[in-house]
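Board notes (copied after class):
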Amino acid sequence: MEVINTSGRRKTAIARVYLKEGNGSITINGRDYKEYFPTGTLQYVVTQSLSVADAIGKYDIQANLDGGGINGQAEALRLAISKALVELNPELRPPLKAKGLMRRDPRMVERKKPGQKKARKKFQFSKR
């Protein structure tokens, strides 16, 4: 089996994934995913698409993560893994899509406007 290469994005995070048959190791930027994502919630997010596809322990995943925060990186990785699994087996698309794992989350940070404190917050108004 050849190596499958896909990418996923979330906010400003980008995940590049290389999936191949193996024993189920997930390596992110040269580190184990449990070391890279210390909380159980983020570890669940990373393995969610594998559990839906019933593919835990079947594929080795090598990932390069860049940009964004830890949560955005985990969700970008989840999307990339989902896309790789569908490329490998197109029959997995309906269950992954039903769980919402095939959709790129379009929400981005709103830009800061001039004359304001943040995107929506204004400076305190003084009548006198």
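Comment from the instructor: Residues 6 and 17 are 5 Å apart (CA to CA). The longest helix spans residues 70-88.
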